[in-house]
Design brief:
Elements lengths: L1 H6 L2 H18 L5 H51 L6 H14 L3 E7 L18 E12 L1 H12 L5 E10 L13 E12 L12
Antiparallel strand pairs: 1-2, 2-4, 3-4
Length: about 210
């Protein structure tokens, strides 16, 4: 070993020193560049995570607004379906009218159901959407003016929407005045109730 060191010239020693110094610089020395790169990479990751958190917050807020809207529309839809039920027959409407008439001691002369109006759900972009079907019923009643007006008033308070398409009010007979009591009148009315038409399932939709 000593012999090898003695044979080592100054030039060779200088070259070896330079190589060792270079290797040290490359492998051991840190001038802060690596640390700065690490910090920059960490900050970038933090910013990315913060952006993801903001997206999640926005999604949560949207979900909450959607749920609130859904709940509000749900209650309104329940009210609509109660006023315009999906299952409503002519017999149901006839029963409703006759019950109100009997409650006011009105005489039911005739009661009949007509051909159901409408037919199919329609949502043409060029026209107003049709989502209901009329359920028409004609009734003729006899009674006092007061009771007949109370009958019409009772229909406006029904939980179902009922409209009068046509009303005719006349004396019961030519000699309508009855000394034993008030004048009796005859009311003939064509009334419409409404049945909700659910939109048809979309093509390819899976039945629930």
């Amino acid at each position: 070993m000593e012999q090898q060191l003695q044979q080592l010239t100054f030039g060779k020693a200088l070259i070896i020193s330079v190589v060792v110094a270079f290797l040290y610089y490359m492998l051991m020395y840190n001038d802060g560049t690596v640390l700065e790169q690490t910090i920059a990479s960490t900050n970038s990751q933090i910013q990315t995570q913060e952006q993801e958190v903001e997206k999640i917050k926005v999604a949560i807020a949207d979900a909450e607004r959607y749920q609130q809207t859904k709940n509000a529309l749900g209650s309104e839809l329940d009210s609509v379906l109660k006023a315009i039920p999906e299952q409503l027959s002519t017999s149901d409407v006839m029963k409703l009218l006759s019950t109100e008439a009997k409650n006011l001691s009105l005489n039911i002369v005739t009661l009949s159901g007509n051909t159901t109006g409408g037919g199919q759900y329609n949502q043409n972009s060029n026209q107003a959407p049709v989502f209901y079907q009329t359920v028409p019923v004609t009734i003729t009643l006899e009674g006092t003016y007061t009771n007949l007006m109370l009958f019409l008033s009772a229909l406006t308070k029904s939980d179902k929407i009922i409209t009068a398409a046509q009303l005719t009010l006349e004396n019961k007979a030519a000699n309508a005045t009855d000394d034993a009591g008030p004048t009796l009148l005859r009311l003939t009315g064509e009334f419409n109730a409404y049945r909700y038409l659910a939109p048809p399932p979309q093509p390819g939709a899976t039945a629930q």
